[in-house]
Design goal:
Blueprint (H helix, E strand, L loop, with lengths): L4 H25 L20 E5 L10 H6 L4 E5 L3 E12 L4 E4 L8 E10 L2 E6 L2 E3 L16 E3 L4 E6 L2 E2 L1
Length: 167
């Protein structure tokens, strides 16, 4: 009678070594990633830039959201106020790169933009925790006034819209 022990031992040893052989070959070809790399996004937004504070709910002017996003250079926009910003049928144009809009910094209930929209024409932008409600802004239906809550154009890339409510 032939012993099955050597054959079973060979199968067991081979099946245990195969994952290690294939894993070591894959590990050598994969690029090394640092601990802080995010696989889902490549933009840094305004990381390392100035902190700009939104201190009022006006559509424009000093301390407004519009002024903060128009500022040049890397920046992080934080909110010291909460409530509704009435855009009066205007569109906020964001065309300066390296920006993080941190809506989660607003006190409760957060920030809502109404009767207008936001257009992004740049790169390396992170928008978090805001609400945009363009609505009809008092215009009659089929009047020709239509705006998107957030739109991208002119080659905008590396843009993250995260935890926003748009309607």
């Amino acid at each position: 009678m032939i012993s099955r022990f050597p054959i079973l031992l060979l199968i067991l040893v081979t099946s245990c070594l195969i994952p290690f052989l294939t894993a070591s070959g894959a590990a050598e070809s994969a690029p090394k990633k640092s601990r802080n790399d995010r696989e889902w996004a490549s933009t840094s937004g305004g990381r390392g830039g100035r902190i700009l504070r939104v201190t009022n709910l006006k559509a424009s002017g000093p301390g407004s959201f519009a002024e903060a996003v128009m500022t040049k250079g890397p920046r992080i926009v934080v909110f010291e106020v909460a409530g509704v910003v009435d855009l009066n049928r205007e569109i906020i144009l964001i065309n300066e790169p390296y920006l993080t809009i941190a809506g989660q910094t607003a006190p409760s209930p957060g920030v809502t933009f109404i009767k207008g929209g936001i257009t992004i024409e740049t790169h390396d932008l992170i928008v978090q925790h805001i609400r945009v409600r363009p609505g009809e802004a008092g215009a009659a239906k089929k009047s020709g006034w239509e705006v998107d809550a957030i739109a991208t154009s002119r080659g905008a890339h590396d843009v993250i819209i995260d935890h926003c409510s748009l309607s």
